[in-house]
């Protein structure tokens, strides 16, 4: 192999490493957005836990088949997984297919993760759509976390630590979510709201 060939080979290796690094970060953010452990993602994707861990740490270059399995398990396109943040425009558009959806245990409330996945560790926001009577029970977030629920349609009720408050369209409830809390759609019709969770808000100390 000539000098030019070696340089090209080195450039290709460098490019592959950079791409793999961005992909690993994306997979980790998506996994955390779904509140999935490595074991749970491994079970859903059929990719070994150790391989997923290596991908997230940029210690391996996965095959296309592995990338496809992970993208299917995370409900996003391969293009989204492979996107490099350095090349992303300031205005970023996400399609419905690329928007992760969380579903409450009763199956009546759906939370579309519309926030930027890069902020998932400290700021999360969701488009909440619920059937009448839908309930979302949540465990405690980290200390100092605050959640804001702005009602767009219908009526919702929030319960935290024995305290309960309701809000109709145009009203917002703010509450500490570093303890178990519940959100209910108490109207007779479907409800919709925007939910923003600020982790480590440090306003309740």
Automatic annotation (TrEMBL):
Alphabetized CDD domains for the sequence: cupin_XRE_C (cd02209), HTH_XRE (cd00093)
PROSITE patterns reported in the protein's UniProt record: HTH_CROC1
Organism of derivation: Microvirga terricola
SMART domains linked: HTH_XRE (SM00530)
The protein's name: Helix-turn-helix domain-containing protein
Transcription among keywords: yes
Coiled-coil stretches: none
InterPro entries: Cro/C1-type_HTH, Cupin_2, Lambda_DNA-bd_dom_sf, RmlC-like_jellyroll, RmlC_Cupin_sf, TransReg_Diox_bact_type
Keyword Cell membrane: no
Domain HTH cro/C1-type: 27-81
Lineage of the species this protein comes from: Bacteria, Pseudomonadati, Pseudomonadota, Alphaproteobacteria, Hyphomicrobiales
Keywords: DNA-binding, Transcription, Transcription regulation
């Amino acid at each position: 192999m000539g000098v030019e060939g070696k340089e090209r080979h080195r450039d290709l290796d460098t490019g592959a490493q950079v791409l793999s690094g961005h992909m690993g970060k994306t997979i980790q953010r998506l996994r955390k957005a779904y509140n999935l452990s490595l074991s749970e993602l491994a079970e859903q994707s059929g990719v070994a836990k150790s391989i997923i861990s290596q991908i997230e740490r940029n210690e391996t270059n996965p095959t296309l088949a592995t990338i496809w399995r992970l993208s299917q398990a995370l409900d996003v396109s391969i293009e989204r997984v492979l996107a490099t943040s350095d090349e992303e425009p300031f205005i970023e558009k996400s399609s419905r297919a690329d928007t992760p959806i969380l579903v409450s245990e009763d199956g009546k409330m759906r939370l579309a993760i519309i926030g930027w996945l890069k902020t998932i560790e400290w700021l999360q926001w969701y488009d909440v759509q619920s059937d009448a009577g839908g309930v979302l029970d949540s465990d405690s977030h980290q200390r100092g976390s605050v959640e804001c629920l702005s009602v767009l349609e219908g009526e919702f009720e929030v319960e935290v630590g024995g305290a309960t408050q309701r809000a109709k369209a145009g009203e917002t409830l703010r509450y500490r979510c570093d303890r178990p809390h519940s959100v209910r759609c108490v109207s007779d019709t479907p409800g919709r709201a925007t939910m923003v969770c600020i982790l480590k808000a440090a306003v309740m100390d």
